[in-house]
Amino acid sequence: MAALPIKFGILGCADIARKVSRAITLSPNSTLYAVGSRSVEKAEKFARENGFPESAKVYGSYEAVLDDPDVDAVYIPLPTSLHIKWAVAAAQKKKHLLLEKPMALNVGDFDKILEACESSGVQIMDGTMWMHHPRTGKMKEFLKDSEQFGQLKSVQSCFTFAADKDFLENDIRVKPDLDALGALGDTGWYCVRSILWAADLDLPKSVLALRGTVFNSAGVILACSASLLWEDGKVATFHCSFLANLTMDVTVVGTNGTLRLHDFIIPFEEREASFFTAIKSGFTELVTAWEPKPSQHTVTTELPQEALLVTEFSRLVGSIKYEGAKPEKKWPTLSRKTQLILDAVKASIEKGYEIVEIVS
């Protein structure tokens, strides 16, 4: 007999929760069970507009969702400053946690969340959706091929979008009391994650923020860049911003090959995604063209990447609930390493662009 679907409760009605609600509906092993907001009216409106079944529970507080004994897991899309309170509370109620990124304002807060999860035996995973797209697995196969890619030498990652006036004045991501990490925590999280992914989760030795950080009047980062250095000589750079045209580029360079993609966070198309590889590149005799030329590889998927994230998370929760499995440590470990690097970049900026050593 197949295990019952994982029952999700959602804390809050943020815009991103609309996308994740759809993902929970599309996932074959999860169901929308409850939503809580600071008012019943807002929660009812959210449930009505986002495909919740008529049987779904609607609550006028976050606490009520956590107190519901039938809720297996919660998705938390609240402002980062609220993560430690509600993530710890959820874990203490033995609710598995799908937590929006960034996970916390700093690694110290994240460690408190992780400690609560470990004490209660619940799974925690961040909402980095592109990690679950089948394209990501295909690209990893290329990076691990010593003949085609070789040894990793460098990574360049960029995620920017041009925010409008309303966003720059009113969005939670520019408010110091809500999401104090600004662009570093939002777009920078993705850049750092792509670098760690390419480096096979190997933490760099040091981080150096690059001069030119842009702050708003409240001191929140709107754009910044940084370089990362490993003991074995590989390097990485990233740029993140709310002030430049939409760009989601990653370039991974090895001794034999190069991987490139231009939509690494949200694919240009929902059901297919491409990447480019170049292997032992050179020039024609008169140096007028590349030989061999880079090749394009397209990967299709029946479910969008956010539904695949929910499916994997629900599979892990189901294994714990129905099979007595232990929580998977891969995902919180990756989240923590991402948070560590964000902390180091922020510290480098605050110290006047000094090199900051990574201490795990």
From TrEMBL:
Keywords: Oxidoreductase. The lineage of its organism: Eukaryota, Viridiplantae, Streptophyta, Embryophyta, Tracheophyta. It comes from the Eukaryota. InterPro entries: Gfo/Idh/MocA-like_OxRdtase_N, GFO_IDH_MocA-like_dom, NAD(P)-bd_dom_sf. GO terms for molecular function: D-xylose 1-dehydrogenase (NADP+) activity; nucleotide binding. This is Dimeric dihydrodiol dehydrogenase. Its EC number is 1.1.1.179. Belongs to the Gfo/Idh/MocA family. The keyword Oxidoreductase applies. Residues 145-260 form the GFO/IDH/MocA-like oxidoreductase domain. Residues 6-125 form the Gfo/Idh/MocA-like oxidoreductase N-terminal domain. Pfam families: GFO_IDH_MocA, GFO_IDH_MocA_C3. Gene3D superfamilies: Dihydrodipicolinate Reductase, domain 2, NAD(P)-binding Rossmann-like Domain. It comes from Handroanthus impetiginosus. It is an enzyme of class 1 (oxidoreductase).
